[in-house]
Write a structure and sequence with these properties.
The protein is of the alpha/beta class and 455 residues long. The chain contains 14 helices and 16 strands.
């Protein structure tokens, strides 16, 4: 069931194995619960109320009562009575339909699931942490029901309601457990839903050593870089582990610091880690309303963060013109700020930033962009994914690059760690004297390295 935020520890059959009769019964119970909640003395008046434990407990009681009534009717009509396991299953599905993602919620609650991809109501694929992929379904009775399910999620989750219709056919959303949902309609023949579960939500750098993400020396280096308030960009392809590493880096920030996070759709969840980040404000971009007004973009939020007395500004994912205000923030007193960016290599980050900068309202030329990079970014940390037959993909840091200077169309950098032939990162160029001194004061003693590179 989904009355808790933890993982399931009992074996439920997958939705593809569920009886259509039970699913239909759960839908009837869900409708009855919604009606009773709406007519109760304390109806569900807001998304926050819908997420409260009191409302869920009341809904569970209504669901059990409605099921008892329907079960009595079924027996009176000569149908087989439900056993206890089926009753629990029906109540759980009804609550998932009301508060969660319907039949998909079972997979979202499964701690072993890594990705969920839906191509229409009857076709869904589930990928597990070990790399196993299964086709399941149906997960809704029709595409219209699937769209309604996603639309309801957009209305309930997030800081503000997010539309999902023909006029706004894209939706990005953080689910209550921290998973990331992306959905499209109208631009595809069937509605498409993709959910990425963050199985490693509350990690620090030390815990990533055992997963093979970083080495012991990298932990010493990166933790010192955070303590020394170096500005860091984490790069990599989609699903390479950038967000997980960014959370781990943020875990090194002192609790006394005020942190502001800025995201297109909430995902980092640092504001929920109250012990680590008691003074944290999470900001989420807002789409325009039906009249085309009220949109607040990432760039505007980054500029707003400069007036919020933040010790550090963390941009969850750089996607466009917010790059200029972010680099300005990094170079104008917000030392120790961080973010992630899509790139195919640590050197490719500079080309990606230049592409965003030339498309921004400022239309910065390459030389000006490179000067801004050199004055704002200290280190680029690149994540790669090593595919291994029969094993789970290994997400790991393959390159760490120190930004040294800019020379016209070039960004001059030292690759402190470089990709090795078997996926492991190898020692590369030495740190500059200024970085060595700053990180040394923060507790890092570099190993022996040699070489330099210009990009």
């Amino acid at each position: 069931m989904s009355l808790h935020t933890g993982a399931r520890h009992f074996a439920d059959p997958p939705p593809s194995a569920l009886s259509g009769d039970l699913v239909h019964l759960a839908a009837e119970v869900r409708g009855e619960v919604a009606r009773r909640l709406a007519s109760s003395e304390a109806p569900v008046a807001s998304p926050s109320a819908a997420r409260s434990g009191a409302v869920r407990a009341r809904a569970a009681a209504f669901a059990q009562r409605a099921l008892d009534e329907k079960a009595a009717s079924r027996v009176a009509a000569g149908d087989r009575p439900l056993d206890q396991k089926d009753e629990q299953l029906v109540v759980g599905m009804a609550l998932d339909m009301l508060f969660g993602l319907g039949l998909l919620q079972r997979f979202v609650d499964d701690s072993a699931v890594e990705n969920i991809d839906v191509n229409g109501c009857e076709c869904a694929f589930v990928t597990y942490a070990g790399g196993r992929k299964e086709m399941v379904g149906p997960i809704a009775s029709s595409d219209e029901e699937l769209i309604t399910m996603v639309r309801n999620a957009g209305a309930r989750f997030g800081l503000s309601e997010r539309r999902f219709d023909a006029a706004q056919p894209e939706l990005d959303l953080r689910l209550p457990d921290g998973s990331r949902l992306s959905a499209v309609m109208s631009v595809t023949e069937r509605p498409v839903v993709d959910i990425r579960r963050h199985r490693l939500g509350d990690q620090d750098l030390r815990s990533l050593v055992g997963l093979g993400t970083v080495s012991e020396e990298m932990v010493s280096f990166l933790s010192a870089a955070v303590r020394a308030k170096r500005n860091i960009l984490v790069s990599g392809a989609m699903n390479a582990g950038k967000t997980t590493l960014l959370r781990a880096l943020a875990a090194e920030i002192e609790p006394a610091e005020r942190v502001v996070t800025i995201e297109q759709s909430l995902e980092l969840g640092l504001d929920r880690q109250v012990e680590r980040h008691p003074d944290c404000v999470a900001m989420e971009a807002r789409l325009a309303n039906t009249e085309g007004e009220g949109a607040i973009g990432m760039a505007r939020l980054v500029r707003r963060s400069l007036r919020m007395n933040a010790s550090r500004v963390i941009v969850g994912e750089v996607l466009g013109d917010e790059i200029i205000p972010m680099l300005n923030a990094m170079s104008q007193g917000r030392s120790g700020s961080m973010g992630t960016i899509h790139a195919d290599s640590s050197a490719g980050v500079f080309r990606r930033i230049a592409a965003y900068a030339v498309q921004s309202p400022e239309r910065l030329p390459l030389e000006a962009t490179n000067l801004l990079i050199a004055g704002a970014i200290h280190f680029v940390v690149h994540m790669d994914v090593l595919r291994r037959p029969g094993q789970a993909p290994l997400r790991h840091v393959s390159s760490i690059r120190e930004v040294v200077d800019a020379d016209g169309p070039l960004v001059i950098s030292n690759e402190i760690w470089r990709p090795g032939p078997a996926g492991q990162a190898l020692a590369g160029s030495p740190l500059t004297d200024s970085s060595r001194g700053a990180l040394g004061e923060a507790g890092y003693t570099p190993g022996r390295q040699a070489g330099a590179s210009r990009w």
